[in-house]
Amino acid sequence: MKPDDPLLALLACPLDKGPLRLLPDGDALYNPRLHRRYPIVDGVPQLLPSSGEQLAEDAHERLLKQLGGGVT
Hints:
Layout: E1 21-22, E2 28-31, E3 36-41, E4 44-45, E5 53-54, H1 57-67
């Protein structure tokens, strides 16, 4: 998935229904509000609640720096 993919604007977190952010390496989507990372496998976002990985606060802070700032 690429940052300009129109599908990205339609995808939402399965838990809070809010927008997701594509991580810089393009292999996952991230919900900064809940600190959850959803993998992209073979180009398909895995958006089941059980597919999400809860990140620790330090990993969350690193990702926010990579993404260029605040929570969406």
